[in-house]
Amino acid sequence: MATIRSKGNKATELRVVAMFRTHGISGWRRGSTLPGRPDFVLRAVRLAVFVDGCFWHGCPKHGTKPRTNAAFWRRKIATNKARDRRVNRELRGMGWRVLRIWEHELARKNEGRLLRRLEMLMLPRRTRLPSSVLIRCLGHRGHGARPREGTERSGILKRG
């Protein structure tokens, strides 16, 4: 476990950097001193982005439970999850929005869904729509579907 780096991990934070650059998302910074030390901060829209490792943060889909020293790891992961909830509350109390991305969500096949989540959080609060309206506007037709022809999103992200 000591060999897992907390910064500059190609499978996590650097993948998000590449996605931001590819899709023309600007204004992000790393190395913030906000509570919880978010991996990325978009100050203009007050958005804190965390990239959570499936093991370290107890992903319900991919988190593994070590057999050796099981009680220690159960406590450790439970403590991490409690800290994540506390940091989310603290940042929201300061007027920030919080986006937590699971490590497994960084796969190419999930990129569209992740970009839609990011785009929705980047919209000004007063223009955000209820999810039922948003689903109709984006032409969502189920898991991984693309918007229907003729439906346009807000244009915050660069289109290829």
Helix content: 25-40%
Cα shape: globular
**CATH fold topology of the largest domain:** Endonuclease, Chain A
What is the subunit organization of this protein? single chain
Rounded to the nearest angstrom, the distance between the terminal CA atoms is 40 Å
Count of discrete domains:
2
Structural class: alpha+beta
Care to describe what's here?
The longest helix is centred in the middle third of the chain and has 24 residues, at 70-93. This protein has two domains: 13-122, Endonuclease, Chain A (3-Layer(aba) Sandwich); 128-153, no CATH class. By secondary structure, the chain is of the alpha+beta class. It has four helices and four strands; from the N terminus they run H-E-E-E-H-E-H-H. Strand 2 (40-42) and strand 3 form a beta hairpin.
Short structural summary:
It is built from four helices and four strands, in the order αβββαβαα. The protein has 160 residues and is of the alpha+beta class.
SSE diagram, text form:
Elements: H1 13-22, E1 28-29, E2 40-42, E3 47-52, H2 70-93, E4 97-102, H3 111-122, H4 131-138
Core attributes:
2 domains, 160 residues, 4-stranded mixed sheet, alpha+beta, globular, Endonuclease, Chain A, 4 strands
